[in-house]
């Protein structure tokens, strides 16, 4: 689906970066499927009206989210802990009704967050179109509806089950092209005292760290507080709090409510002012970003070619969806990276999207001790480096590319 116009403000988009043909971030595949591999022209644009940073073209949702979706949230213990805390913060926030509160989570995946509500007997519903991960959530006592969220589905839920206290989402709002339809649905779903709490990778961090790998097929938007204020303002809702998060290399949690329902916390004007100072409302900021991205590509390719020339063994660590952008944009294939190890069974034995680097079980990593490991899951650096201390003790080195290309 191509958008020459901003999906939110309907005003012309200015292209800021072009990555060329890209495969699906989670499109791990077998050799027999090479001929049918899906590619799309990936470029991003910006609207100075809505301040939305967005893909110009995105594959149809059904191509990305289905009954064999490769991303299982619970592969990270750090994220499991993060979502346990998020759930506790919602439960203790004071925003939920005292009697029989009802919460909905969009994109609940394998139940990583909602299981913390289910185990306490709190009325909940997960909206999760990818059936394989939704079934995993069911095993943890989480009730799901395997559908794409829309304004129509919101109306159906209100009719069948009534309005809700909290609308939660993590790393999913930025996946949905008809985001205005989602917000219209939320407006109908929420009780007058209801709140929205969602988090997504944060545009401010992407610009500050040149983490361009947050741009891939699923991420149709990268939000800022400015763009979220604009979007929800169209439905008479407002930001009441903003909470920066460390997850996914820098995320923002947005808390919103019907206009006037709650006092606005100081974090809101503070972070909005910071974003204006960073230039998240101006096109020229993205011209500088493009230059940094191009430099990052040159530095990374030079480093890997240099190591190859020296006869070093280099592998990738964690077959993340975001690494699909790095590997394809920089043209890094099995000649420079022998394999990628990953803990997700559905990815193992397959080849990486586009560049076709073999994905192997992570046990292979310890068994073969490479000279260098390119940490493709740089956002999980703390967790991974913590459990791979032996690798470094035995002389192994990490390569990371965010915030700049370096050997650690
Ligand atoms: N919340 C989890 C999963 C994020 S991945 C976490 O943070 O780890 C995004 C999830 O959103 C996927 O499981 C995908 O199937 C789901 N999703 C994608 N589009 C959706 C839509 N329109 N409505 C609801 N869920 C959606
Ligand atoms: P994400 O960056 O989109 O969360 O994807 C994480 C990927 O990294 C997922 O494929 C699992 C993999 N992974 C490992 O292989 N080992 C680990 O220790 C962690 C935390 C993740």
TrEMBL record:
GO MF, one annotated term: methyltransferase activity
Domain of life: Bacteria
Pfam family, one: Methyltransf_13
All copies of domain C-methyltransferase, residue ranges: 247-403
Statement: the UniProt record of this protein carries the keyword Zinc: no
Entry keyword set: Methyltransferase, Transferase
Cross-referenced InterPro entries: Methyltransf_Zn-bd_dom_put (IPR013630), Methyltransf_Zn-bd_dom_put_sf (IPR038576), MeTrfase_14 (IPR013691), SAM-dependent_MTases_sf (IPR029063)
GO annotation (BP), single: methylation
Domain annotation Methyltransferase putative zinc binding: ranges: 6-65
Transmembrane segments: none
PANTHER family: BLL5978 PROTEIN, TRANS-ACONITATE 2-METHYLTRANSFERASE-RELATED
Protein name per UniProt: Class I SAM-dependent methyltransferase
Origin species: Leptospira ognonensis
Taxonomic lineage of the native organism: Bacteria, Pseudomonadati, Spirochaetota, Spirochaetia, Leptospirales
């Amino acid at each position: 689906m191509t958008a020459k116009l901003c999906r939110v403000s309907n005003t012309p988009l200015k292209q800021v970066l072009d990555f060329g043909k890209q495969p699906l971030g989670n499109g791990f595949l077998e050799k027999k499927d090479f001929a049918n591999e899906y590619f799309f022209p990936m470029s991003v644009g910006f609207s100075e009206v809505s301040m939305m940073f967005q893909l110009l073209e995105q594959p149809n949702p059904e191509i990305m989210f289905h009954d064999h979706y490769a991303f299982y949230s619970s592969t990270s213990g750090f994220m499991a802990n993060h979502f346990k805390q998020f759930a506790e913060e919602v439960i203790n926030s004071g925003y939920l009704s005292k009697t029989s509160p009802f919460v909905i989570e969009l994109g609940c995946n394998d139940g990583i967050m909602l299981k913390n509500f289910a185990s306490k007997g709190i009325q909940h519903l997960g909206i999760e179109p990818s059936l394989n991960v939704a079934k995993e959530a069911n095993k943890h006592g989480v009730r799901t509806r395997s559908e794409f969220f829309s304004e129509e589905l919101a109306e159906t839920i209100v009719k069948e089950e009534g309005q809700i206290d909290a609308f939660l989402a993590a790393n999913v709002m930025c996946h949905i092209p008809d985001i205005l339809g989602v917000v219209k649905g939320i407006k109908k779903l929420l009780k007058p005292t209801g709140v929205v709490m969602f988090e997504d990778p944060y545009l401010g961090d992407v610009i500050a760290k040149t983490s361009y790998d947050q741009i891939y097929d699923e991420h149709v938007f990268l939000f800022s507080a400015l763009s979220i204020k604009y979007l929800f303002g169209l439905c008479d809702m407002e930001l009441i709090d903003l909470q920066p998060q460390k997850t996914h290399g820098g995320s923002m949690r947005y808390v919103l409510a019907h206009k006037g329902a709650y006092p606005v916390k100081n974090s809101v004007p503070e972070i909005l002012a910071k974003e204006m100072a960073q230039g998240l409302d101006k096109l020229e900021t993205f011209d500088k970003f493009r230059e940094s991205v191009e430099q990052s590509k040159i530095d990374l390719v030079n480093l890997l070619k240099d190591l190859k020339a020296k006869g070093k063994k280099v592998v990738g660590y964690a077959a993340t969806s975001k690494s699909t952008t790095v590997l394809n944009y920089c043209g890094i294939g099995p000649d420079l990276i022998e394999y990628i190890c990953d803990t997700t069974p559905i990815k193992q034995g397959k080849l990486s999207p586009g560049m076709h680097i073999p994905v192997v079980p992570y046990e292979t990593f310890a068994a073969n001790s490479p000279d260098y490991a390119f940490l493709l899951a740089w956002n999980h650096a703390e967790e991974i480096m913590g459990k791979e201390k032996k690798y470094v003790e035995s002389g192994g080195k990490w390569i990371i590319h965010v915030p700049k290309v370096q050997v650690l």
